[in-house]
Amino acid sequence: MPEPASPEPDPGPATRTGGRGRLLTGAVWVALLLGLWLWGREITEGHGSSVTPTAGDVAAAGRPLADPLPPARAPLPPAPPRSLTIKALGVDAPVEARGLDPAGAVDPPPYAEAGTVGWYRRGPQPGAPGAAVLVGHVDTDDAPAVFYDLGSLKPGDTLGVGRADGTTAEFTVEDVSVFTKERFDPAKAYGPRDGKRAELRLITCGGDFDRARRSYSANVVVSAYLTGATGPKGPRTPAALVRR
């Protein structure tokens, strides 16, 4: 696959000032951008290194599996995401497409929409081949945000992405990792682990909050992969499973 061209900034980025939670700010945004570049290189490296987080409930990081994970389902045709449901966290949120700001960083939903999830629209669509990226705030000045409890997910938990074609792509959590700025590895955090699968990355802030810099020291990265799909009228005809 040819190396992707440099992404161009989108016009009209949202202005972000103040706020306790700052999603992937500073150096971590730079690392995310590098990760986006790596999508076109068919990276298949293993899981990222994790550290003990201190912001939010991220006890699931490094938690061993109790049961085997289900096999992957063959990817779906492309369709933009419209909603994200995570029953284990009580999340039922709209998803909106986001681009890049003039600094070259993914532009998350504004803090006035802290319950909305952002999808990086120049990357894969959830359910299609590749690793799609969804980002969300962990908190605001005075309240938890959509991904506040993201780190409490554990391998085997499920989530659903409602898509514009009326299907719901069903994903199973594979692991939960926490990457510090110093140990961030974009290849392991964002690169697809299996080029034949449809994968998903859910990302928010974690680690310690630096009040002087008004940013977090790390990021929580939840990795999941497609294991099922339903249509507007119920389960779709089963598709062939991904062969390894």
UniProtKB/TrEMBL annotation:
It comes from the Bacteria. Residues 1-20, 47-79 are annotated as: Disordered. One of its GO terms (molecular function) is hydrolase activity. Keywords: Hydrolase. It comes from Streptomyces klenkii. The keyword Hydrolase applies. InterPro entries: Sortase (IPR005754), Sortase_dom-sf (IPR023365), Sortase_F (IPR042001). The keyword Hydrolase applies. Residues 1-12, 67-79 have a biased composition (Pro residues). This is Class F sortase. Pfam families: Sortase.
